[in-house]
# Entry
Amino acid sequence: MTLRFIGIDPNTGDGECPTVWFDEDEQEFVFQGWKADEALQSRCLATGPIPPTETVVRLPARMGPMIRRACDVAERAQL
# Structure
């Protein structure tokens, strides 16, 4: 698996989370974030079920540029 590191939240206190990667082999975005609390999960469930193999994570809006960068990497990989 070719996992390309995109970036980590610059405001993280311990340098561990949240993080964005792009898996070039699988053509997938990979996000590490804060687990959603029960209230957020309940709100998300209003749009449909969350399968047991999936979860809801939170990423701060300040990571938008990193998410855009990961999208750019994905688009270039498809060329």
